[in-house]
Structure formats: structure tokens, C-alpha cells
Amino acid sequence: MKINNYDLDIVVQGFPGKSVCHGGLGWSSVVLLRAHDRIVLIDTGGFSMRTMLIKRFADRGLKPADITDLLLTHSHHDHCVNWTMFPKARIVIGRGRT
Fold first, then answer.
1. Residue 3: beta bridge partners?
2. CATH superfamily name and code, 2-93
3. Does residue 53 surpass a pLDDT of 90?
4. Helix/strand/coil (H, E, C) string of 28-77?
């Protein structure tokens, strides 16, 4: 999906917990955002997604090392546990409330 000069690509469509099809635990969405010579990954998904992420990146002509930035929405495991797959990425996560 193209919005202005930003290219958004849903790599994994998330779903809430207690889903009829997927059991009690949900998955976060994993989204690629490309713009301004950056490849940003919004959230990294849970540990069980690693093989699927590598395949879906390959389908898009990417390797994990191509990701320039990780934008983590928060630190729940299903959103951030795969950060180690992206050795060259700058990691950004929101600051907790004080």
C-alpha cells in the first residue's frame, strides 16, 4: 500500500488472543515501512514467527540484515522478541510513562 511517499507492507497480519482459529495467544502484526532510503520494521513478532519472517522477507527480496530500523510499539514478547534477528537495525521503542 502506498501512502504519499511511504510504502506500507503487512508482512504478518496479527490477531487478538482467544481467537477461534489460533488458540489463546494472539500475534502482533509485523509491518514493513519503506521511505527515505530506510526499511523500517514495525514490531518483530513472536519467537515462533522467525522461520516465517525469513521466508516472507525473501519473498520481498530482503534479508533481516537489510532492515535499517526497528520500531517497537511496546515490549511484550510477541512484539519484540525477534529484535536479535536484525543486527544492523537501529532500535526505537517508546519511553514508559513516568
1. 6
2. Ribonuclease Z/Hydroxyacylglutathione hydrolase-like (3.60.15.10)
3. yes
4. CCEEEEEECCEEEEECCCCHHHHHHHHHHHHHCCCCHHHCCEEEECCCCH
